[in-house]
Amino acid sequence: MNFDISHLLEQWEYQPGQVVVRRFVGKDGTEKIQLRVDLGLLQMNAHGRPDGKRPYGHPTLLEHYQGKIRQFAQKHEGSDKRFVLKAEDCSKLQLEALQYHHRYICLLQLEDYAAVVRDTERNLKLFDFVEEHADSEDLSWSLQQFRPQVLMIDTRARATMKLQKEDFPTAIREIEAGLERLREFYRRHSRQDLIDQSAEIQALEHWLEEVTSRRPLTKREQLENDLHEAVKKEDYEKAARVRDALKNLKASD
Question: In the chain, how many domains are there?
């Protein structure tokens, strides 16, 4: 077996500052994603757990621990004992979350936004799980600290899917909802001071301004603009017609 992959790397150059990624069907018939990095490449499955493994016979490590909690609850039904994730458990779950992080970054570049949402929502559920069952707040925070980035990417994917359909109102609502989720995260962790400093919030606010500026005007907004222009040009006959159109529009609302 020839372990040298130099010929593959020579045919696919690394580009600093860019996400260089490709999608293909492997010899086993499953869809794969490759990410070019400076020292080589990362390969992952496009579906299921990125590394294709089944930890403890489960599709993911998260599902393994969810099963353990169900078993624990059945065994200790009626008692006040609770299942606790230790440092080693949280570390393993964090490594699994990192696999999904690599994949949704690739999927974002591949413009597979539905799959991005699938993977970001999956990691958010994992963060919730760890927050609920971790042995300490410090262990919980080891994953929670990445929530703002995941929320931003999730919001971008959701809104972009709406923009592809030219559904500007829903896209704007998705961005606004994402911003509120980010602000709520900082409020819940008593870090309101970071709201104005958050790079994720700033990025989404700028994008919201851009999307709003590109949004086609509604019929009412167009008429209001026409009225303003007619009055500005002292075209009172046109202004009267526009006012009538606005009144009729209000009456039909």
Answer: 3
Whether 79 and 138 have beta carbons less than 8 Å apart is answered as no
> Which of 94, 115, 145 is the endpoint of a domain?
145
Same domain? For 34 and 55 the reply is yes
Q: What are 63-76's pLDDT values in tens digits?
A: 999 999 999 989 98
Both 123 and 66 in one domain: the answer is yes
Q: Is the dihedral of CA 228, 234, 235, 238 positive or negative?
A: positive
pTM of the model: 0.83
Tokens read off for 38: 């400076």
Instruction: Provide CB contacts within 8 A for 83, sequence distance 6+.
Output: 68, 69, 72, 73, 133
Distances from the Cα of 201 to the Cα of 86, 175, 213, 215, angstroms? 32, 10, 18, 21
User: What is the dihedral sign for C-alpha 29, 117, 13, 146?
Assistant: negative
Residues 168, 205 share a domain: yes
